[in-house]
Amino acid sequence: MSSSYAVTLYSIFITVFVYLLSLRLSRRFPSPFTTPVFFSTVVLIVLLAASHISYKAYLPAKGVMTYFLGPATVALAVPLYKNRAILARYFLPVVGGILSGSMLTVGTALALAKIFQLSHNIFASLAVKSVTVPVASEVAKIIGGNEVLVAGFVMITGMIGAMFGLKLLSLARVHDPVSRGLALGTISHGIGTGEAVKEGELQGAVSGVAMGMAAILTSFILPWFF
Predict the structure, then answer these.
(1) Which one, of 202, 170, 207, 201, lies nearest residue 187 by Cα?
(2) How confident is the model at residue 171 (pLDDT cuts 50, 70, 90)?
């Protein structure tokens, strides 16, 4: 067995193991800092660094695991189909929420740019922070953002949403499952949708719709805005 093949197998194994461990830990000790996406990321970085595995060496394992994201994403259509009647009933409020949420994310980026005198490059990268990485990267090319910064801002936004989103909604006394899923999907894209799915099937379905529609709306709004 070649060393590169062994590294790929090892990387896949520890990634899956750490994520399963983080799921169990989050159920036993619920906290923003035991949220699987945060905890497993931190632990995995430490393990890879300790094993002297570079990101380049980890890429083949990432490619294998990313391949299965396709079926996992398609699987989101199952709760969406099962809850189609509820989504149809709330169609206008959902569209309005996604539109206002998408506009608000751009507005907060603009406010931060004004307050901290950020360059156009950073502002443009920050403006797409609530859209999933593939879409954000393409939009960033049009509006003059930096793809590396975009990836970082998108991941941080999603992680913060997954860690604190549901708890903040509960503190704000937002308990309606449609509203909770809508907020997470619009602001925290795929990472937030993962947390919404864990809370409930309806929340996951609405979050999946919000994630997709927010990406489409942002693709139209941001180039026009800039």
Answers:
(1) 207
(2) very high
For 203, list phi and psi in degrees, rounded to 5. Answer: -60, -40
Using alpha carbons, select from 182, 178, 177, 201 the residue that is nearest to residue 192. Answer: 182
Give the orientation angle of helix 36-50 with respect to helix 147-171, to 10 degrees: 140
Which residue in this structure is represented by tokens 């503190």?
A: 171
Q: How far apart are CA 219 and CA 226, in angstroms?
A: 12
Q: What is the pLDDT of residues 60-117, one digit of tens each?
A: 998 888 888 777 777 777 887 888 888 888 888 888 999 998 888 888 888 988 898 8
Return the pLDDT at 46: 93
How far is residue 202's CA from residue 77's CA, in Å, rounded to a whole number?
Answer: 11
Token pair, residue 197, equals 């799915």
Please give the angle made by the CA atoms of 32, 74 and 131, to the nearest 5 degrees. 50
User: Could you tell me which residues come within 8 angstroms of residue 65 by beta carbon, excluding any fewer than 6 positions away?
Assistant: 12, 15
The sign of the CA dihedral 65, 70, 154, 177 is negative
